[in-house]
Protein: DUF692 family multinuclear iron-containing protein
Amino acid sequence: MEFARLMSLPALGVGLLLNPDTLASPEAEGAYQYLSIIPDRFWLDAGTGAADRHRELRPSVAALDLLAERVPIICHSIGLSIGSASLFDTGHLEQIARWQRRYRFAWHSDHLAFSRLAEHGVEVNAAVTLPLTRDDESLDLLVERIAAIQSQVQGPFLLENNVYFVIPPDEPYSEAAFLNELCSRSGCGLLLDLHNLYVNATNHGFAAEALLDELDLRQVVEIHIAGGDELAGFYTDSHAGPVANAVWPLLERTLRAAPWVRGVTFEYHESYAGLLSKGGVARELRRAREIWERYCRGAP
Structure:
């Protein structure tokens, strides 16, 4: 993304990923400055080829309409599966475009990954985001698809760095170099998930700070912060309650170096709401906002 275009976007501040628990946490209202939504949770998808494919869940959409009157809404989709070699879901894009016209997201994003496979007319969803090989073939695929997204959906498009548990041998690009090249070739921006970065650094034994030093932070529009937990010998991106302690210094380091970032989003999964009882959501948001205001208030 051109830096001038990034700077033209509104600086939204500190936001919260909307989930069913959010509306049951009134103490958080006022602590967030915007909401990030997973739009796929607001409709039923009958699948590619269906005549009336996306059936919106009216009570949920009505609640979102009320929220959108009070705070800015941005879009973080999970359904595109941009890295699927065997399919590219233009119907999903059409639905995102309809919602962009409806809610006027400052930007929209998805994951730099794939989860859907299609063969002989049968589609399978892995129910987990899987990483792409960091090579030129993947870059060519992504650049073509990002161009289609940018032509169909108004507003900047961001991709989020993904968690990975296996690293293919002999990849020609490091993670940071791949992200830099992708943004340079495609014009997309970056949603930098600092917890995903910490997960990968923990599981693969590298320094998260070294990757940040290599990354072109002029491409970072939004940051995600979250927590995780251990599973089967790995540290996971489970969005388990409070932000992981090691993520806070990464946030401070990144915003110090990149005060132009337009938003910091706290994510947690509603199944871990008990870990954020007694005002825990508001506490995490306030801490993030203190860091944001230290480095980003008054930034150009």
